[in-house]
Design brief:
α2 crosses α8. The N terminus is likely disordered. The radius of gyration is 21 Å and the shape is globular. The termini are far apart. The protein contains eight helices and 14 strands. The protein has an eleven-stranded mixed β-sheet, with helices on both faces. It folds into two domains: 234 residues, 3-Layer(aba) Sandwich (Aminopeptidase); 72 residues, RNA polymerase II/Efflux pump adaptor protein, barrel-sandwich hybrid domain (OB fold (Dihydrolipoamide Acetyltransferase, E2P)), CATH 2.40.50. The protein is of the alpha/beta class and 330 residues long.
């Protein structure tokens, strides 16, 4: 017979410090067949446009102003309650990294991540609503083309691309996971602690792994009230596009499609972005993007766009990403 675990065991001590508050999800089921959509907010706790936009749509569903006729939609307004309560990006770690089931969770995000993964498996389509620091135009991240590769095999690129195009924002970007692999390789050359490629997996990557498809919507600046409106309009467009409600199909926005092709990594303290850039800003060939601590300029290798400029990058992090006009059409 197994001995009982002593009261002063390490696992119990670790568990005692975890936040065990529940995840609240709200589901509306139409009376006719249709796809199953899930909408997430506050995967990062300081990104409040998602919860605000989602709650607005929930109230319209409850009041009858918006009627789910077909399929199902599940709303998870606050995916990371601890971080949301603390008004921080994360509780113990970034929930939108290393998203997968973990039989022995090591921290709070592991614990809620297990439940979020279970929810994602119950659905076919994901809309994950985010915001970002600083100024910039809203944009959508979508996934790879159909492929049978090892990194992110996929077979619903056409449906996912159409979904990304319907959300009403002008810029759509792809190439995240391939570029994360480049970041790992660049870190290795600097003899920094090795990262696993699974660190690049977030909610949408897990959704594709589970057989569905999904996109990340970046609605704008964290504190800009307009970000809530972008999120709200995108949710309504998603419901109409998928046929869950009786509404005209949304028009596809005028779009810039960007393929991320390069990461510019911070190699030493003092490496920094040069210029007041925003994601999606156009770059001319040879234009200075960043400058090394020794004064060396980092320039655009060809005409393209800057993605995720990071003024506070530490060694091993991306100063920014570089992308080009994509050959893909949505």
């Amino acid at each position: 017979m197994a001995k009982p675990m002593p009261h002063n065991s390490a696992p119990l001590q670790a568990a005692a410090g975890l936040d065990d508050g529940p995840l609240e999800s709200i589901r509306f089921t139409g009376l006719a067949a249709g796809p199953k959509l899930i909408v997430l907010g506050a995967v990062h706790g300081n990104e409040t446009c998602g919860p605000n936009a989602i709650r607005r749509v929930i109230e319209e569903c409850r009041s009858g102003k918006l009627v789910i006729r077909r399929g199902e939609v599940t709303f998870l307004p606050i995916a990371n309650p601890k971080a949301y309560r603390l008004k921080t990006r994360e509780g113990d770690r970034n929930l939108n990294r290393d998203m997968r089931e973990k039989p022995l969770p090591a921290n709070y995000e592991d614990r809620i991540g297990n439940h979020i993964c279970a929810l994602l498996r119950q659905h076919e389509v994901l809309l994950d609503v985010h915001s970002f620091r600083g100024a910039g135009e809203p944009f959508v991240f979508f996934g790879p083309q159909d492929n049978r590769g090892e990194l992110e095999p996929f077979r619903q690129a056409q449906a996912e691309g159409a979904f990304a195009a319907c959300l009403g924002v002008p810029v759509v970007i792809h190439g995240w996971l391939d570029n994360y692999a480049r970041l790992i390789a660049a870190r290795e050359k600097l003899d920094l602690p090795r990262l696993s490629v699974t660190e690049g997996y977030g909610t949408t990557e897990y959704m594709r792994f589970a057989g569905g498809y999904g996109v990340t919507l970046e609605c704008g600046s964290h504190d800009d009230p307009a970000s809530i409106e972008v999120g709200y309009a995108a949710i309504l467009n998603a419901l109409a596009h998928l046929g869950l409600v009786d509404a005209p199909a949304p028009a596809t926005a005028g779009r810039t499609v960007i393929h991320i092709t390069q990461v510019i990594i911070c190699e030493a303290e003092g490496d920094k972005v040069e210029g007041d850039w925003k994601t999606g800003d156009a770059l001319a060939k040879g234009q200075v993007i960043a400058r090394r601590a020794n004064g060396e300029a980092v320039t655009a290798p060809e005409p393209g766009f800057i993605i995720f400029p990071n003024a506070t990058a530490k060694p091993g992090e991306g100063i920014c990403y570089f992308g080009v006009k994509s050959t893909r059409t949505l």
